[in-house]
């Protein structure tokens, strides 16, 4: 299946199907600054890519088409509003090539879950179409194209564990000792709208009992340099959690059930409603997931590891 362009001076073009695997992200730290005049919040976040993957396949075609299977099939629009279509068109415009491809998504990352599944798919599309079309952009150039579509996309190209500033699109890798962390991901029934969660946070902050805002990510960065789950647990934090809990009070039951199932700690992932729990090792993660599934507080609890690489050809 590996058929490369004949001319070595040309950027490499892939004729066979290009298959790209892309991870979901969680935020180990999500500090949300005040609402600015331009309607955005300055973010200070530590992204972490986990082993829950979508897979995008790109084949040569004479128009641009998208099909899918798995999570969200029948719900997710496959038209030009889909981030995959938007990413393919943005890359084609940037590289001045026709946006022709047959794209197929195998989705495992739940929709509107706070795991950045849409951004993950866009990142996978950029990698796949770059190779299919032989556009030969650098990862930095792909990240620039991605950042125009969504703030999480540069991180999902990069993967690992990284600090995100600005709207989250300015990434700097965190050089930590290579440690694998073990997580349990509690997938909810239904999603939460990210803009709605931010609006709720603004409301709560304008009210009489504003939730305490996180300090900077320094404690978390220090904790990542150790291998102790208890130390990491104490440093995890998410400013959006109070807002997600206000919109979806039953998430408190999920967090409680995870703690009763023995998790070191738990928190809402990004804008929620997915909750993630830290475990000490793979076996412990399995026990916590089993406890959460038995409690019946979420659609499904699955184990995952991190950090994982970003969008990559398989
Ligand atoms: P984030 O954490 O980045 O806010 P999320 O994980 O909460 O994202 P996503 O699943 O990434 O949510 O996307 C939210 C919305 O984006 C979806 O409800 C859908 O309307 C739209 N969307 C567009 N393209 C995609 C895609 N390929 N996959 C998922 N959602 C998409």
UniProtKB/TrEMBL annotation:
Family note: Belongs to the GHMP kinase family. IspE subfamily.
Pathway(s) annotated for this protein in UniProt: Isoprenoid biosynthesis; isopentenyl diphosphate biosynthesis via DXP pathway; isopentenyl diphosphate from 1-deoxy-D-xylulose 5-phosphate: step 3/6
Ranges of residues in domain GHMP kinase C-terminal: 220-296
Its job: Catalyzes the phosphorylation of the position 2 hydroxy group of 4-diphosphocytidyl-2C-methyl-D-erythritol.
Gene Ontology MF: a single term: 4-(cytidine 5'-diphospho)-2-C-methyl-D-erythritol kinase activity
Residues annotated as transmembrane: none
Protein keywords: ATP-binding, Isoprene biosynthesis, Kinase, Nucleotide-binding, Transferase
Name this polypeptide is given: 4-diphosphocytidyl-2-C-methyl-D-erythritol kinase
The protein's enzyme class: transferase
Enzyme active site: 25, 152
Residue positions binding ATP: 110-120
Xref: HAMAP family: IspE
């Amino acid at each position: 299946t590996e058929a490369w362009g004949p001319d070595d001076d040309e950027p490499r073009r892939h004729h066979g199907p290009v298959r790209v695997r892309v991870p979901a992200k969680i935020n180990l730290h999500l500090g949300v600054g005040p609402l600015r005049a331009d309607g955005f919040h300055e973010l200070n976040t530590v992204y972490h890519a986990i082993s829950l993957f979508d897979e995008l396949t790109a084949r040569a075609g004479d128009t641009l088409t998208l099909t899918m299977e798995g999570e969200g099939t029948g719900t997710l629009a496959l038209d030009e509003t889909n981030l995959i279509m938007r990413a393919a068109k943005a890359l084609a415009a940037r590289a001045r090539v026709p946006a022709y491809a047959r794209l197929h998504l195998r989705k495992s990352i739940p929709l509107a879950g706070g795991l950045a599944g849409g951004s993950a798919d866009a990142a996978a599309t950029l990698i796949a179409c770059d190779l299919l079309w032989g556009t030969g952009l650098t990862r930095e150039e792909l990240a620039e194209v991605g950042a125009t579509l969504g703030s999480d996309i540069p991180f999902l190209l990069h993967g690992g564990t990284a600090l995100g500033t600005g709207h989250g699109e300015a990434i700097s890798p965190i050089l930590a000792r290579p440690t694998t962390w073990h997580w349990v991901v509690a997938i909810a029934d239904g999603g939460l709208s990210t803009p709605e969660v931010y609006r709720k946070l603004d409301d709560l902050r304008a009210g009489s009992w504003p939730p305490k805002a996180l300090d900077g990510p320094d404690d978390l960065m220090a904790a990542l340099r150790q291998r102790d789950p208890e130390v990491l647990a104490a440093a995890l934090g998410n400013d959006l959690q109070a807002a997600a809990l206000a919109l979806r009070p039953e998430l408190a039951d999920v967090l409680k059930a995870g703690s009763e199932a023995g998790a070191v700690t738990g928190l809402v992932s990004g804008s929620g409603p997915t909750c993630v729990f830290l475990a000490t090792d793979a076996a412990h993660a399995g026990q916590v997931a089993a406890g959460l599934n038995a409690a019946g507080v979420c659609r499904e609890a699955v184990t995952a590891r991190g950090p994982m690489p970003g969008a990559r050809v398989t």
